[in-house]
Design brief:
Length: 262
C-alpha cells in the first residue's frame, strides 16, 4: 500500500525513524560510558541526546499515525501489528522522558536507575523495530506498487448516487492493472482484464491484505500478503490460504461511462 505520508512515493516514516533510533542508542551508550568512567561530560551528552530523541520521535510519529489511520488496510492483521508497534514506540518515548525527568529534577539521581530505564526502553525499541520491519517487509505498508505495463498506483475517492458510482479515470487502466476506489466506507478494486472490467472488495478474507496491492494476471488477483488467489469476475477462491471468496460488484457501461452498482 502506497503511504499516505510520502513524497513521490517515498514514505516519510521509515526515513524519519532513523533519527530517534540513533539518539536513543546514543543516550544509552553515553550513559553507560558515564557509569563506567564517572566522567560527567558523558552524562551531559546523554541528556542532549535524550532531548533530541524525544523531539525526533514525536516528529517521526506524525507520518506513522497517518499511515496507521489511512494506509494500513482496515480490519487486518497488519492493523493489529501497527497498533502494537505504535504502543511500543509510545512506551519507549515515555520511558526516556521518565529517565530524563528523574535525572534532571534529582541531584541524587542514580545512574543505575537511569541505565535500567534506558535499557528497558532499548529492548522495547528493538521489538517495535522488528514489528516495523514486518509491516514493511511482509505487509508491504509504504510500498509504491507498480502493475503490468508499468502502471502506477491509482487511488480515488468517489461518491455514490443511489448506490450507483461513476468510475472516473477507468480509461487509464490497461489490461492487468487495478485501482483502489473508496466509496463511503467501502474499499473496492476496479480492474481491467482481457475479458473487460471487474470490481471486487479490496479486503482479502484471509487476514485482510489489500488486494489492490497484489498482482493481476489472466483474470486472477493474488493477495500480496500470503498469496491467496481469486477470480476477479466471480470472486471465487482459486488458491489458499483464504478459504472463502471475495464480494464482486456489477459494472455497467453507459454512454461511454463506467458505473458500479453497490
Ligand atoms: S491476507 Fe493472507 S492471503 Fe491475503
Amino acid at each position: 500500500m502506497r503511504s499516505k505520508a510520502s513524497i513521490k512515493g517515498h514514505s516519510l516514516h521509515p526515513m524519519l525513524i532513523s533519527f530517534p533510533i540513533a539518539f536513543y542508542t546514543g543516550t544509552f551508550v553515553f550513559d553507560a560510558l558515564f557509569w563506567w568512567t564517572g566522567n560527567i561530560f558523558y552524562s551531559q551528552i546523554a541528556v542532549v541526546l535524550t532531548i533530541s530523541a524525544i523531539v525526533t520521535a514525536l516528529l517521526a510519529a506524525v507520518p506513522g499515525v497517518i499511515d496507521y489511520l489511512y494506509t494500513v488496510p482496515p480490519k487486518s492483521s497488519g492493523k493489529k501489528r501497527a497498533a502494537k508497534h505504535g504502543i511500543l514506540n509510545v512506551t519507549v518515548l515515555l520511558i526516556f522522558v521518565a529517565a530524563l525527568l528523574y535525572r534532571r529534577g534529582n541531584d541524587d539521581a542514580s545512574i543505575n536507575v537511569v541505565l535500567l530505564l534506558e535499557g528497558a526502553g532499548m529492548v522495547l525499541l528493538l521489538i517495535a523495530g522488528w514489528m516495523g520491519g514486518t509491516l514493511v517487509g511482509r505487509n508491504q505498508i509504504g510500498v509504491d506498487h507498480r502493475f503490468a505495463d508499468a502502471g502506477r498506483w491509482k487511488e480515488l475517492h468517489l461518491t455514490a448516487d443511489n448506490g450507483r458510482v461513476e468510475i472516473l479515470g477507468y480509461g487509464e487502466l490497461k489490461t492487468d492493472q487495478m485501482m483502489l476506489v473508496h466509496v463511503e466506507d467501502k474499499r473496492i478494486v476496479v480492474a481491467r482484464t482481457e475479458h473487460g472490467f471487474a470490481a471486487f472488495d479490496d479486503h482479502c478474507p484471509h487476514r485482510g491484505g489489500s488486494l489492490a496491492g497484489g498482482t493481476l494476471i489472466c483474470g486472477t488477483v493474488q493477495c500480496p500478503w500470503h498469496g491467496s488467489q481469486f477470480d476477479v469476475h466471480s470472486g471465487t477462491p482459486k488458491a489458499g490460504p483464504a478459504k472463502t471468496g471475495i464480494p464482486v460488484y456489477p459494472l455497467e457501461m453507459s454512454g461511454g461511462k463506467l458505473y458500479l452498482q453497490l
